[in-house]
Every structure is written in C-alpha cells, then in structure tokens.
Records
---
Amino acid sequence: MANKNFDECTSFLINNGLYVGRICRLENVLKTIINKHGYIKNVSASLAETTALGVLLANALKFEGLFTLQLQGNGPVSTLVVDITSNGQIRACANYDLERIERAFALRKNEGEIEPTPHLLGTGTLAFTIDDGKSNYHQGVVELQGKTLEECALRYFRKSEQIETMLKLFIDIPEDEDGVYKAGGIILQRVPEFGGKEVDVKDLPELRREAEVLMNSLTKEELFDENLSLNEILYRLYHANQVAVTKTNHYDFACRCSREKLLKTLRGFKEEELNSMLDENSKITAKCGFCSENYEFTISEILEKLN
Ligand SMILES: [Zn+2]
C-alpha cells in the first residue's frame, strides 16, 4: 500500500532564517523506479540514495524545467542519473557492468555488504544541470571524492559554491529481493540573503554547532517512521530554534520519453545506419533507459516524413 507520508520534501528555516533547510523521504517513487529496472541490490541502493540527494538539491533552486543530477565514473557503475522536473516528476537510471561488479564483490570481506556509492563509481564526477527549456543552462561539477555520497556533495558546496552546508543522507535497504527501499535526508545551509543579519557574529559558531548537533540527532528510524509527518520530525528537532516550514513538494515517478522523441532521434541517422540496426523481424527496437519501455519502428516509418 502506498505510504501517504512519503515522497515529500519540506523546506524550512531555523533561527529566523540563519539556516535554510530541506528534509525529504522517498518510498513509493523509489519502488516504481526500482521495479522498472531490476538492477542488482547495491545499484538500486545507490540509485535510491542519489535520488534523495537530487531531491534535496533541486529544492534549493528556483527553477522551471528540469534538474538533472548525474554521477559518472570509471568504476563498475559508470553512471547514475536522476531527473527531477519543477512539478515533481522523477525518473532515474543506472549503467553498470555486472561482471566487473561481481569481480569487485568477490573481494569483499563481508558477503552481502553494501558498498558506498562513490566506491562503485570509482574516479569520476558529480554534476548537476538545470535546463529551463530556453537554453538557460546552469551547471555545477565536482570530482567524486569522499567515502560517501554525502561527503562528495558536501565537497561540492565547499569548493564550488562556498556555501556553509550540513547534510545527512539515509537509506533503508530491504532484506528481501522484492522489499521496499526508502531513502531520504536533511540538509542545512547558511544563505546570508535569507536571514541571520541580526545575529551577532560571535554567536555564529555556537549556533552552527547547535544546528549540526540537532541535525545529527535525527535517526533513520525516526525519518522513516510512517507515523510521523516531516513537520513533526522538524518540530522534534528544531522546536527551540523557531523552525518555520516554507513549503512542501510532492514527488511522483514519470518518464518523459515518447515515440515522437525517439523517432526524431532515429531520423538523425543515415538510411544505411538504420538498416544496420534492424533486428530479425525487420524492426528497429529502442528501449528507454529510464522506464524500460520498448518502442518498435519500421524503416519506412522512420523515413516517412523525410521524403
Ligand atoms: Zn521512458
């Protein structure tokens, strides 16, 4: 049964805007994404974690259009991609080399142990882009360095944006093959234009320490407790810090692929290239990497509008 208290991201302020924050947790949307792909457990776990990070980052930005978080590396997992639209539609996918993963896993000390995301990706980058459809393209990139995805993301804020950031990610990995994944997190940032101007500079270190200690007191059990709403969790953490909720966004799975889009891509190929793609039924089949939908085309259909 769908859990009503999940698939949300709530934005908030504490200490009269000294820190802005977001808290999110995902379940149903992950279930749909993971069921569509059938990846191995560790890859599903990394994709779930990356999706939660994507939601926390996308919610920091005012944008209309598409936010994409992409991790790329030279490891057994070559890419993890999460797409989030400004109206709350998410899709996500991974690319990996199963043989390489199995070889790497054979060296593990503890059978079944989940490897952290950066370890699966190896040397690479964490990048995000915002595409508002009007060619306004904003991109942030940082090298994937850190033991955890959390550390990699924090490095981005330190290096590229120089925004004081605190971040905690959580993931709940099911024991069973068909169990449900949960992922979520909390992020706090000091954005001077939001507030905190009235705060005495000498009080800043203590206020930061307090905000961080309280953030770190959040447990996985608490975040994933379906009987608690995100607002109740925030109140528990920051009731003494004038916590104020500013908005809540809801998320669903949706893929933006279509026959028309694929046709357009295929029309970019030469006729002889298209002929080399034909299968034994004289069709060209294309599978959407995000939702696993299969599309079939005939050559004449592809060439139709060209002539
Ligand atoms: Zn699709």
---
Amino acid sequence: MKTLKTGIVKKHVGESIEQEGYEMRLIVERELEEVVALQGLVYSKLPNKQVLYMDSYDEMLTDMNLGAKIVGVFNQNQELIAYRYVGFPGYDDKNLGYDINLPHKELGKVVHLETTVVHPDYRGNGLQSLTLQQMIPVVKEMGYKHMLCTVSPQNYFSLFNIMKNGLKIKALKRKYGDENTGKEGLWRFILHRNLEPVSLLNPRELLKTSISDLEKQEKLIKEGFIGYWLFTESKELSYVRFDGALV
Ligand SMILES: CC(C)(COP(=O)(O)OP(=O)(O)OC[C@H]1O[C@@H](n2cnc3c(N)ncnc32)[C@H](O)[C@@H]1OP(=O)(O)O)[C@@H](O)C(=O)NCCC(=O)NCCS
C-alpha cells in the first residue's frame, strides 16, 4: 500500500518521551481487526464514554466495501497507533447534509469524517489534524466537496482540531438515538466545510458563548449563527452571523 506520509512522533513512556518513526497509509481489509482493537482500547480508557460512538467491525467492513477509506498511522514496529475513518454516505438517511439543510443536489458530494482515535501514548503529535489534512486532497480528487462530521460538545480536544481545520458548527442536536427502543441520542455538533473556495461574506454579528451552554447555542443556530472558533483556555465558542447564507 502506498505511503502517504512519514515522519517522527513522540511517544509517552512513563514520565519520559521517546521518538519514533511513523508511516501513514490507507488501511487494507485484513488490517481492520487492528482498527477495531485500537478503537476498543481507546474507548476503554476514556473518562467520558459519551464522546466516542463506536463503529463495529461489520459496519466498517460494509462501509469499506462501499468505498470508505481508513487512514492508518503505524509506528516503526508496524503497530497501528492512530486512524481516521472517512465515509461517503451518498443519499443514505445518515448523510449529515440533511442535518444542515444542504441543497439536495449537493448531498452526493458529501464526505463524512467518521471516527478518529489516537493511542494515548501518542497523543500530542497532532495526528488527528495530520490525518485530516492528508485526506483533503484525496477526497477532492475524487470529486467530493462538502466535509461534514459530528463532535460531542464534551470533546473539546477533538472540536478544537476539527475547527482548526476550517469546519464550522452548523447544527447541534441529539444523534445516534433509536426511536423504536426509545434510546435517547447523544448531543453532537454537526460541522461542515466547503472544500471549494467560497466567496467571502460580511460578518454582521459576533458573540461568544460557553461551550457547555447547549440551549443558547441551539437558539443561536436557529437564528442563523454559525460556530466559528473555539477558545481552548476559556472553553468558549465564537458564533458569527453573516449577511447571506454560507453553503
Ligand atoms: C481527539 C484525539 C484524537 C486527539 O488526539 P491528538 O491528535 O493526539 O491530539 P493533539 O495532538 O491535538 O493534542 C493537543 C494537546 O491535547 C492533549 N490531548 C489530546 N487528546 C487528549 C485527551 N483525550 N485527553 C487529554 N489530553 C489530550 C495532548 O496531549 C496535547 O497536549 P500537549 O500540547 O501538552 O502535548 C484523541 O484525544 C483521542 O483519540 N480521543 C479519544 C477518541 C475521540 O474522542 N475521537 C474523536 C471523536 S471520533
């Protein structure tokens, strides 16, 4: 499999830090077990399980057969230390374009950033961002235009990395619930970036709100505001309303 990128990462070993080489490349089907194992390990160590909605082996395999791609980061011992899973929902109900009222003709150009995980020993190398940046030219080349994902309001490490890469908050709602069983969904921001250059609009109003004030943010989004930037220290989000609508 073609190498997408190589480099050096820091690994936390007890109190000290070691350096290791890494290779980024697309995962092949026989490596899917490793992906599921890494997801399980990361989930088991999460203090707040609400932030990660787990994908099963079968779901990922079906999705891969439909074209989904998983970028893996391997250390010098060829162990998987991080991955990013990218899916192409087409006109399926799960297309997040529906959640942000994307025009129907655009739905076929939607790419989903599904799960990303980084092994706890390798956090702080910017691997979530690096894998995302690596995938942008790949999906653009394939003709995709709208990058969308969900992020938990409680997952500010992930939210910061996603917003840093130009995705904006366009909706806030409960996702992954089940009407039949009455299972309540998990709160998720829905973020979007148009991968093609968009014309600049004039910001009309700008304000800040605490990331934990979901009610206020729901109201702002209904009024046409877009979540623009996350201030990590204060855990506040800036919301902007433009003259005209951004697609
Ligand atoms: C979200 C996640 C992928 C980010 O990993 P990453 O790319 O290594 O993060 P960054 O390199 O941007 O980290 C920046 C800083 O935040 C810290 N950090 C990142 N994730 C952290 C976490 N979950 N808990 C505590 N600190 C964390 C890093 O150690 C680093 O600190 P430093 O600057 O002092 O070195 C990783 O935290 C993770 O796997 N979380 C669990 C799964 C998840 O929530 N995935 C996203 C939803 S699908």
---
Amino acid sequence: MNIELKRIKFTLPGREITLDVVADVEALITDLSDADKVPCWAELWPAARSLARYIWEHTRLHGQSVLEIGCGLGLPGTVCAVKCGVVTFSDYNSDAVELSLHNAAINGAVAKGHLGDWRKFVLDDKFDWIIGSDVFYDPKLNPYVKALIEKNLKADGQVLISHQRREHTYNFVKHLKKEMGFAEIRIDKIETDEESVYHSFSISIHHLIKKLKHA
Ligand SMILES: C[S@@+](CC[C@H](N)C(=O)[O-])C[C@H]1O[C@@H](n2cnc3c(N)ncnc32)[C@H](O)[C@@H]1O
C-alpha cells in the first residue's frame, strides 16, 4: 500500500486501541461522481467509534466468528479480535482490507481478510456475528447486503449495525427485522468524542438477535 498513514489512539474503558489511519483522505479522491471511487473507506466514521465502544462493553466474543462488512479502517473488527473473536475483515477496497488486518495486528490480534463486493459476494462461511458501521446508506445496495446476511449469518447469529441516524438505514433495519425475524436492542444517543473530528454526533446502534422459535 502506497498511502501515507498516521498513528492514533482510540480509548476504551481500560484499554487503548492503536490505529494507523490515512493521513490525508482528500489526497485519495480521484472521481467524486462515481460512488465506487469515493474513498469513504479511508475515514474513521463516528459510527465506527460508537460501534467499537458498544462491542467492547456489551458483547462476549471469545471464539465466536465475526464478519465485518465495509470494514474501512477496521476499528470495530479490531475490537472484536482483541476480545478474542475470530474476525474476517471484508470490503471491496483492497487497501481497506489490508489496513484493517494491519490494525488488528498492531493490537496483538490475528484476523483474516476477504476482498469482496456485496453485489457479487462469494464467501461461503457462516458467522456468529455480522457487523457493519455506516454501511447501509444506499437503498440500491441494501438488497445485496440482505442476501449476504441471509447466506452468511448462522441460524442463531447476531447482527450489529451503527449509523449517524440515516433514514435509509432505519428502513433497512425495519425490513430485516420483518423478513428475517430479528428481535432488536436499539440505542439512540448523542456521543461526545474529543478524539473525533466531529466532537459530537447522533448515533443509532441496532443489535439484532434471532428470535427463538417455539414448538
Ligand atoms: C462510509 S464507509 C464506512 C467505513 C467504516 N465501516 C467506518 O464506519 O468507518 C463505507 C464502507 O463500505 C465499503 N463499501 C461500499 N460499497 C461496497 C460494496 N458494494 N461492497 C463492499 N464494500 C463496500 C466502502 O469501501 C467503505 O469501506
């Protein structure tokens, strides 16, 4: 990867995560008119920070398989790997997958990578968890992500989604709950984060859990 990086710290209660992030995201912009060429993977979005905190405080992941989709810089997946989850980072941008694997490694964790576009996703493995921060923003892509979740989530698997209160994401979650029979823990909050360029942001986190079927 021939991209200039800078090292930052992300603070969790009782643990500091080290991350190498892109030093100059604007330098990667080539064509803003093509959504597939916008380097949104290179920014550490507030939704990733919030999901990382939620995962740290509210999940038990030891030995559980986790697929992070649209991993970008891989902060939530790195926290899963630090909690001894068996993590696969996935994105359609190879630099994102490479940097996420690097970020897990500099925190002493091991992970796998999968380069794949949701529109032709060929991974066959089934996961205990599928997680994604700021990824369900495009209604044209959401049907592909739904198919991915149907195919790659175990029957008793769980899904974690975080976003900056996007209407398309709320609609997608509503649809997933109805079609796939998920129960939901939902958290809406305003977070203050001095380390983020945004300082204060509104976030929703959806923790989707398969409902038990009674005989
Ligand atoms: C807004 S960024 C979020 C990045 C990261 N999860 C975060 O919250 O900081 C969206 C991510 O989804 C990835 N992505 C977008 N469309 C995709 C597609 N069709 N297939 C796979 N990944 C995709 C992008 O490369 C990018 O990493």
---
Amino acid sequence: MSIPADKTQFKTVIVGGGIVGAGIFRDLVLNGVETLLVEAGDFSSQTSERSSKMLHGGIRYLENMDFPLVFEALHEKNLWLKLTPHLAKEVPFYLPVYSDAKRPLWMIRIGLYLYDFLSSFKNSPYSMKSKSQTLQDIIGLNPEGLTGAGVYFDGIMDDAKITLEVIYDALAEDHAYALNHTKVVNVRKINNKNTLTIKDQFTGVETNIIADQVVYALGPFTDIFLKQYDFYNWQDVLLPSKGSHIWISARDLPIAYPIVMTPQDEFGDRVIFVIPHGDKVLVGTTEVPNKDDLFHVTPTDEEINYLIKNLNSYFPKLDIKKEKIIGSFAGIRPLVREGNSAGDRGKTSREHKVFQPSSDTYVIAGGKYTTFRVMGREVTQKICHRFRVSYNRDKTETPLRRPSVIEPFEWRLPSEADLVHICETEMPKTFEDLVMRRLSISTRAIWKENTSVDFDEYFTKHQKTLSKYFHVSNENIKNFK
Ligand SMILES: Cc1cc2nc3c(=O)[nH]c(=O)nc-3n(C[C@H](O)[C@H](O)[C@H](O)COP(=O)(O)OP(=O)(O)OC[C@H]3O[C@@H](n4cnc5c(N)ncnc54)[C@H](O)[C@@H]3O)c2cc1C
C-alpha cells in the first residue's frame, strides 16, 4: 500500500528487506500489526539473492550434530515446497563417494536415513546407487575410485523471488507499507521515541519517521549499522563468512541432477554444490573471511580457481576452463559468533539469535534462508505480545497470494504487456531491479553468454515503455550483455 504523504508514525518499522526482514514483515501484518519495511537497495538485493538457492535441511550440519536445526530446516523446506511450487522444486542430489573418501558408502547411508528421519519422512526417500548406475546418471563424472553414490532430496529455488513474493503477499494487507531504495541514515531517541531518518536513494530527500517498535534485520550489515549509535551500546556479534559461486553453461557441464562434491583440502572439510538450473549450472560455494566492502563483495581469483579445480577433479574429461564461466557472485553469511567455534566459519552453527538492545528494539541475525519463517516468529510473537494482539502462528502457513509475472524456472522474456504489469505491480525502481530480480534465473545468469536471444534488440525495443518507470540508457542495456 502506498504511504499517505502525511503519515510519519508507524507501529513497527523493520529495517532490512532481505528474506529475514520480509518474513517478519509478512508475519506481523498477517497478525494485524501495522508495519513499514525499509530497504536501502532493492528488496533481496544483498545476501538473499546470493545464496546457493537451496531450500534444504543442511545435510552437512548432521556432522556438527545440529539435529534441531536440521529438523526445523527440513520441516520448513517441505512446507515451502508445498506453498510455492512455482518458485521451488524438489530434486535428487547425488553425493558421489570415492574409495579415499572420509565417509564411505555405509556411513553415507546412515546419514541419509537420518536426514529422511528428521524430515518425519516427508523428504522423497533417499537411495543408494552403484558405481555403474551413478556413471549412467551423471555424465562425465570421474569413474576412477568411484564406489557409488547416495541420493537424497532437497529443494532448489529462486531466492530473490521468494523474498519478493513474501513482501508482495504482505502488501495485500492494508496496514502494510514497504519502501525499497530507501536507506535508514540516522536513528535517535527523541522524547523516548524511536525517530528514524530515511533517505530516498534517488532524490536524496530525507524524512523523519517515528516507530513504536523497531526491528533490525540487517544480515551482514548488523554490526556496522548498530555500532554507529552509542545508545545501543552494541558489541560485534557476527562472524562474517564470504561464499562465492560461478555459473557455467549446461552445454559445458551437461549434468541432469545436482552433485555434492566433498573436497578435503586447504579450505577444510566442506562441500561444493553443482546444481543445474535450466540451461545454466550453479557451482559453489566457498567459505572464507571477507576482505571486501560489505555492499560490494565479489569472488576472488583464488575462490574461482578453487571451484574450477574441484569441478575438474570431479569432471576431468569436460576440461572446464575459467573462460567458460558465464557469471559469478559472492555473498556474506551473517553467522553469529559462538563461544566454542573459535572462528571456524564452517563449524559455526547456522542458528539465529535475537537481541534486544533497548526495550522497543529487536535485532535478529544469523540463521539460514530456509528457516526464515521460524526465525522471524520469535520476534513477531514478542511484538504482538507487547501490542496486545493475539498471535496466530498458522497465518504464515498459507500460500503466497501475489505470484510474480515471470516464474523463475521458465525461459521466456516478457511481452510488452507483461513488462508494464511487472513495472506497475512488482516495484522495480531501476533497470537492474527488473533484470536481476523480476525476470527468470536463466535471464539473470545469461548476459555473458553467446545466445540466440538478442538482449540489445529486446530491451532497445522496449526502452521507451520501460523509460516511463525508470532510467534506461543504451549503457544500462549493454552492461547486461
Ligand atoms: C554464499 C551463501 C550461500 C548460501 N546458501 C544458502 C542456501 O542455499 N540455503 C539457505 O537456506 N541459506 C543459504 N545461505 C544463507 C542465507 O542466504 C542468509 O542467511 C539470508 O539470505 C540472510 O538474509 P538476511 O535478510 O538476514 O540478510 P540480507 O539479505 O543481506 O538482508 C539485509 C538487508 O539489509 C539492508 N540494509 C543494510 N543497511 C541498511 C540501512 N541502513 N537501511 C535499510 N536497509 C539496510 C541491506 O541492503 C540488505 O538487503 C547462504 C548464504 C551465503 C552467503
């Protein structure tokens, strides 16, 4: 709903429009609490569009004995597979096992059984494959030393679109407001009330708003934001962990199912997923300390070499060179420090934490994309309690009501009428918002590849229409080639 010009006071303001902020927004407004969501860039333009795009229980967290987290994540995975079938789908993941592996096939079998057990057997059931079956299913996989594979089921999804649709669904309520490209640039307590200065990132216009309750869902930006304000007395809580991905064309890496690679090397004992998304394959991730500016993280050469090296050890005949990369991206996991994790990012739990730096302010950090709904619930319940609103947890177990025009797994460019509809209903404010988050995953990953689709021609044809909504120059269009 658009905000009336004279409205400057809100029951709750959420700062941060990634999946965590979006989830709390929906939960609050479905339970009747007036809420404004404020996001500095486009919704879901930071960590929440740079994940490995899996709805998953986290098979590798079984090793850390994180059973409650895996149980919760599996439940959420299976719920969202049901609620958003157009944005997520269940697929078999192949975990190839080699004779020198740390975990032999029998151990994998136990792990996969436990995984299905923790899902209350709602996962499609795991299976074990012989060497020959595995090689038949996964074309090009290295046969040397292969003993077989375990196959289990998880979800693949469009992370940006789920966040957007969670926000669109919330906006169906008339006490829900959301602003993208609007940054919170100052916070003060005036007469004991939270006064936030928000700045329109295009016009530079600043406005003061008052919030009875504030929620910070800032992901990796939590510490740098909160430390600016003495009254929060904030101490760092995050152990930021960078992860990078590359996209390869399915022509160069023609696999039918996702593969889990388990290298044991200088980066420690971790996993790399190789996941087909239509005509592209997503490969990642790494797990390293971050050295970049948090708003502009990119994969380093070292991380890219690491991913390519492992791809070639699993698929030696495909001889994948760096030149075959058609896109790449990096994000920061907002992990919450643990006393005993001693800075080991891989072993640090993916649990979330809620902090309360002042009586009317919550800060939420950590967690996983998959568990966003249950993460947010803790905060929503407390806010409902404070405002004496009865809380119904089942309200978020309903399908999203405003599906986006372009579904993530379809390969189609919108018609002129669709483009107009997207611009009018899906809140893109820039050309990048449109291309990166309102079209399909395939469109997003395609711009560096030679393709039969001429993007120049397509966008130039629609430039006049798009220019009614935001600035589109020839330069913009070329940048997405
Ligand atoms: C490499 C990688 C792979 C991952 N893979 C998976 C996976 O496959 N499955 C899974 O379940 N989880 C995965 N995760 C975890 C998951 O992506 C994150 O836990 C989740 O996206 C974090 O969401 P968030 O809303 O907390 O943060 P964000 O999405 O970063 O949102 C925080 C928002 O705050 C905004 N902001 C910052 N400052 C201001 C300000 N001053 N004013 C207004 N807004 C502001 C930012 O612009 C940002 O959009 C992965 C994470 C990474 C990094």
